[in-house]
Specification:
By secondary structure, the chain is mainly beta. It has a single domain (2-118), classed as Sandwich (Immunoglobulin-like). Helices cover 0% and strands 53% of the residues. The protein contains no helices and nine strands. The strands form two sheets. A five-stranded antiparallel sheet has the order 2-1-3-4-7, with no helix packed on it. It has a four-stranded antiparallel sheet with strand order 6-5-8-9, with no helix packed on it. Strand 8 (98-106) and strand 9 form a beta hairpin. The two termini are 15 Å apart.
Length: 119
């Protein structure tokens, strides 16, 4: 399971402040106050995204899944009101075995991207 948690006391002046950061598999392109958990990883059938909107006023996000070549497999509009957590489960059983990427976007900004493995 890959987990990202916002750290309020950021000792780094760069603005990036996440715990449990996995630098080899995760890229934070913009800093926001959201938590995401993607599990199970690896998976054979279902993958679940838990996303907590800690303080963004806009509750609408786009969730995309691509294969390792950048081909869009799925895109979903999800709504997570401020201060709540949304749980979204996707059936990936029809995907071939391999590496896939998931992205959480809002207003054309990518906030979180992770990999997951389908076996």
């Amino acid at each position: 399971m890959i987990t990202h948690k916002w750290v309020e006391d950021n000792p780094d002046s760069s603005g990036v402040a996440f715990q449990d950061f996995v630098p080899d598999t995760t890229t934070i392109i913009d800093t926001v106050h959201i938590n995401t958990i993607l599990y199970p990883n690896p998976t054979s059938n279902l993958i679940t995204l838990d996303i907590t909107n800690k303080d963004l006023t806009s509750p609408t996000f786009t969730h995309q899944i691509t294969d390792m070549y950048g081909t869009l497999k799925e895109t979903h509009t999800i709504t997570v009101p401020n201060g709540t957590t949304g749980h979204y489960t996707y059936d990936v059983s029809a995907y071939t075995a391999g590496v896939y990427f998931h992205y959480v976007l809002q207003n054309s900004k990518v906030y979180v991207s992770d990999i997951f493995i389908k076996y």
